[in-house]
Amino acid sequence: MSNDSQTGISVNGRSYPMPKVTAVAICIDGCEPAYIDAAIDAGLMPTMKRIRETGTMHMAHCVIPSFTNPNNLSIATGRPPSVHGICGNFLLDPETGEEVMMNDPRFLRVPTIFKTYYDAGSKIAIVTAKDKLRALLGEGLKFDEGRAMCFSAEKSDTTTMAEHGIDNASEALNLEVPDVYSAELSEFVFNAGVQLMKSFQPDIMYLTTTDYVQHKSAPGAPQANAFYEMFDRYLTELDALGAAIIITADHGMKPKHKADGTPDVIYLQDVLDEAYGAEKARVILPITDPYVVHHGALGSFATAYLSEGVDADTVISQLKGIQGVDVVLTKAQAAETYELPEDRIGDLVIISTENTVLGTSRDRHDLTALEVPLRSHGGLSEQVVPFIMNRRVENLPEAPELRNFDAYYYVAQAAAL
Ligand SMILES: [Zn+2]
After folding, report:
1. What tens digit of pLDDT does each residue of 319-342 get?
2. In which band, very low, low, confident or very high, does the pLDDT at 295 lie, cut at 50, 70 and 90?
3. CA–CA distance, 248 with 301 (Å, rounded to integer)
4. Which of 89, 202, 215, 339 could staple 289 via S-S, CB 3.0–4.6 A?
């Protein structure tokens, strides 16, 4: 890798110029494009409306599984999970049979764009809503030189200069720590971004939110519109400060329930136990994380490990026959089709349709915490995300060629003009 601070950086096989103004990527978690359309139509996003007319508004594809971490790390590295290694929140350690959280930076296989810019002398600011992403996104940054900050809204009152590049971010920014399940957790991220633009003046900034609102409210619903109206106010400020800005998402969001409001779930572990016997197959849901309240650990992507003696072809044809199952692929097929790391997925990958989710066993999902009919993601039906820039870009491809992880490739170019 050659990093010439005059001409730009090169990382993971792609080149990025040095920005002359701040290059900002904003990842709106769970931003199905219809949320923005509905809020613009309701007259609540004047700046976004202007950007749609004078900037660039395209659609891009996110990576599969359409989950938060794989996509945030794709945006941060400019490459799919086959390159960076993060393909979900959990993997099964084949040695121990234990489910291991993939939040630890040791699972990240390549440097981020942030680290590479940092090493070339740039100033970096990263603000996340939840803390689960912070360590991965901040991997490789040095926080003792006054040129990097990386912290979460969730843990903003316990940040230190040594670990996050800022002492008590909550106090420094005069922002109270919001509840982890709230729209305010994302508002904190936007507010911090505006403040840091003025005070810290980073070269590269990344703002990434939480999909609390999108899990609860459909496009055009009052809470959703209020969220996007709030976002537009901060977008107005960031735009006025001269930043080159790209707005994209980690994944979309779809209703995953029946007409009566109950979740439409295929309990895959139960299906496989019944057909092949207990402990012959092990279903892993990579959506599972410590924050399950709003989705009950139910998404549209699962992977299954099969014991010896269980015939994959038989399982595949059985699963394909289940209503609500969209795609069943072998490990090799899935790795190639969705650019996944083969050593971190099971023998099969299963994806469900737009309004259906995949569970393990019925008794392992607590659905009583779901306060509203389930909305979730993970599948192909949540792959289309917005790709919006406050600069006009000529010859920008559209989905499916355009990917959300092209964000810094384009915003750095716009910021270098
Ligand atoms: Zn997400």
Report:
1. 999 999 999 999 999 999 999 999
2. low
3. 21
4. 89
The partner residues of 101 in beta bridges, in order of sequence, read 90
Question: In angstroms, what is the span from residue 309 Cα to ligand 1's centroid?
Answer: 37
Instruction: Please tell us whether the domain made up of 265-376 is placed in CATH 3.30.1360.110.
Output: yes
How far does the centroid of ligand 1 lie from the alpha carbon of residue 30, in Å? 5
Q: Which tokens hold the place of 298?
A: 């139910």
For the 2-253+378-416 domain, the top CATH level (class) is: alpha beta
Give the Å distance between the CA of 287 and the centre of ligand 1: 10
Ligand 1 centre to CA of 381 (Å) is 14
Taking Cα atoms as reference points, which of 276, 405, 281, 250 lies closest to residue 350?
Answer: 281
Q: Where in the chain is the domain with CATH 3.40.720.10?
A: 2-253+378-416
Of 417, 258, 284, 400, which is closest to residue 349 (Cα–Cα)? 284
Question: For the segment 341-378, what is each residue's pLDDT rounded down to a tens digit?
Answer: 999 999 999 999 999 999 999 888 888 778 899 999 99
Give start-end residues of each CATH 3.30.1360.110 domain in the chain: 265-376
pLDDT at 2: 46
pTM of the model: 0.96
